[in-house]
Amino acid sequence: MDPRATSSPRVNSTTQSLAIIINRANPVDNLSLVELRRLFLGERNHWPNGHRVAVAMLDYGQPERQTVLRLIFRMDEKTYQDHLLRGMFRGDVFVAPKTLASPTIVRKFIFNAPGAIGYVRASDVDGTVKVVRIDGLLPQDKDYPLQIDE
Amino acid sequence: MHLLVLSLAMESISHIRFTKSIIGLGLFVFLAGGSLFSQESGTTVTVDRNVVQALLQRISSLEASEKELRERVSQLEKGAAPSATVAANPSAPLLSTVSPHPETIAATTAPSQPDPFPKPQSEQMGPVDQERMDVSKTQLNIRGFGDFGLYGGNQKGQTTTFSLGQMNLFITSNLSERFRFLTELVFEVHQDNDFEEDLERILLEYSASDYFKLSAGRYHTAIGYYNTAYHHATWFQTTTERPYIFAFEDEGGILPIHNVGVEASGLIPSGQLGLNYIASVGNGRNSTNPDGEPVQNYVDDTNHKAVNLALFARPDAIPGLQVGFSVYRDALFPPNVPRVNETIVDGYAVLARPRFEWLNEALMIRHAVLGGHVFETPSFYSQISERFGLYRPYFRYQYVNASSQEPIFPQVGLRTGPSVGIRFDPAESVALKLQYDYTELRRQSPVIDGKSCPQLSMCAPNALALQVDFKF
C-alpha cells in the first residue's frame, strides 16, 4: 500500500468512473488492483493500522456493483456469492460484507466505520470520505482502470 | 417485533404530544405574559411576529409527524407486512442470514445530502445508526445446509435405502471488531436410525491481524487440504461424500478429523508467494476406549497433547492454486497394546477455480508401537471436475492401504477405486448429485456397522448414490 497521493481529492465530472472510498482516518492512499481484490474478497481482514476491514457493497444489480464484480472480482454474482459463502464457512472471511442500498448510505457507513471500504460513482463522492488511488490513479485521471459500464 | 415498533411509535407520538404541549404552553405564556405586562404597565407590547410564525410552523410540522406516525401505527396494527426497510430498523430480527444476502441496509433514514458539518464519529451515530451500522454488533448470523439421498450397493448385507443426511446450522456472531464466535450445529442420523445432534465445530476466534489469528474450541484439524476446505455441509462438495480417508470419525473415518484445543493461523510475509501457517495443540483422539466418543471434547484421557503444523502457499501468479503440507503428532494408548506414536504427514496440490477443480492429496499415517512394529498406511485421492453451465461432471480415484494388523484401525484394509458422477444445480440453492463408485476391497472387516462402513462409498464393490443438497 503505497503512501502516496492526496487525501480527499476533488472530483470533477468523471461521472462514469468508480471511486474506491475509505474512512478519512485511514492512512492508506493507494491500492493496487490485486490488493483491492484481496480486501473486497475477504482475503485480507485488517488494514496496516490494525483496523478490521469492513466491506460495503452496493445493492444487487446496481451498475457500480456490476463494475466491481467484473473489473475487480472477475466473477459473476453467483460465483461471488458462492465464494463468499465458502470463505465464511472455512473461516477465511471474518465478516460478511455490508450490502447497502444507496451511495449516500455507503458514504455514511464509511464515515462511521474506521476500517470501512466501499465504492460509489466519482460524482457521488463528498468530503466525508477519502478516495484512494488505484495503481496510482484517481478517478479523474486518464487510464483510471475502474470505469462504470452502464 | 411489531410490538416493539408499535411501542416505539406510540412513545414518539407521546413525545410529540408533550412537545406540542410545551410549545403551546410557551406560546400561551408568551402571549399572556405580554398581555399581563401591558395591563400592568399600561403600555402596548409588540409581539414578534417572526417568533410566533416560527412556533406555528413548528406545531404544523409536529402535527404532520404525528399524522405520519399514526398512519404507521395503523399499518402495523393491521398486520401489514414490514417493508424491506424495516430490516434496517432497530427492531429488525436479531436472527438474520449471512451471505449471499448479507445485511441489506435501506436508505430511508439517510440524509439526501451529505452533512456539510459532520459530527465526530462518537456523536454521529444515534441509537438508530448504531443498530444499523455498527460493524461489531453482537448478532447471530445463520445459514443452513442439508442433504437427502438414495443409496444402494452390492456389498453383502447392504440394502437400498433412502437416507437423511446432515442438517447443518452454521452460526456466526461478531462479538467485537476482533472477536468472532463460530459454530456448526449438525443434526444427523446414524446406523441405528436415531437422530443425534453434534456441535461439530465451536470456536471463539480472535483476529489480531492478518498474520495472527487465534481460535479456541473444537475445530477441524488442519491435516492437509480437504479437512479445512470442506466441513459438514455436502453442499460445498462436488461429490456426494468426502474422500474415504477424510471420512468423519463417527462414520468410520481413520483420521483425527476433529480436535479440541487452540489453533493459531495467519499469513507469513512472503510477497506474491502467499504463504500461510496453521499451528494447533489439542487433546487429540480418544484411544483408550475404542467404543467411546472419538473426539475428546471434555476430558483428555492422557496428559499428552496432539500437535499439528501446516504450511501452504497461494501464489498470486496462479489463481486458485494451493500447495502445502502438514505434520500431525500424537501418542495413543489403545488397550492391551503398548503406547503408539502417531505421525500423519500430508502433502497436496490443489487447483480450485469456480469452473475447474483438480484436487490431489496424499497422506502417510505412521503408527509406531513402542518397542514393536511400525505400521505405515499410505493413501491418496485425486479428483477432477469442470463446470459446464448447470452441470459439473467429475471423476475421483481413491486409495488407502492399511495392514490387517494395524493397531488403531484394523478394519480398513485395502480400498481403492474410481468414482464418477455429475452434479446438477437446477436452482441457486439446490443441487442434485449422481455418483457411481467401484471399489476393490481386501482385508477389511466383512461386517457393515456404524463404525466400519456407514456409507456406501468405498464400502461396497459397486455403489450408486443419488443425493439432493440444499442450502437455506
List keywords for this structure.
heterodimer; A: 150 residues; alpha/beta; D-Maltodextrin-Binding Protein, domain 2; 5-stranded mixed beta sheet; two-stranded parallel sheet; 4 helices; 7 strands; globular; disordered N terminus; B: 472 residues; alpha+beta; Porin; 2 domains; 16-stranded antiparallel β-barrel; 5 helices; 18% helix
Structure description:
By secondary structure, chain A is an alpha/beta fold. Chain A has a single domain, classed as 3-Layer(aba) Sandwich (D-Maltodextrin-Binding Protein, domain 2). Helices cover 29% and strands 17% of the residues of chain A. Chain A is built from 4 helices and 7 strands; from the N terminus they run E-E-H-E-H-H-E-H-E-E-E. In chain A, strands 4-3-5-1-6 form a 5-stranded mixed β-sheet. Chain A has a two-stranded parallel sheet with strand order 2-7. The longest helix of chain A is centred in the middle third of the chain and has 14 residues, at 77-90. Residues 1-14 of chain A have low confidence and may be disordered. Chain B contains 5 helices and 19 strands. Chain B has helices spanning 2-41, 49-77, 121-124, 127-133, 226-229; strands at 95-96, 104-105, 140-153, 161-174, 179-189, 195-209, 212-220, 258-268, 275-282, 306-313, 321-332, 340-352, 356-369, 374-386, 391-401, 414-427, 430-438, 440-442, 462-471. A 16-stranded antiparallel beta barrel of chain B has the order 3-4-5-6-7-8-9-10-11-12-13-14-15-16-17-19. Chain B starts with a helix and ends with a strand. The chains are: A alpha/beta (150), B alpha+beta (472). Strand 4 (98-100) of chain A pairs parallel with strand 2 (104-105) of chain B.
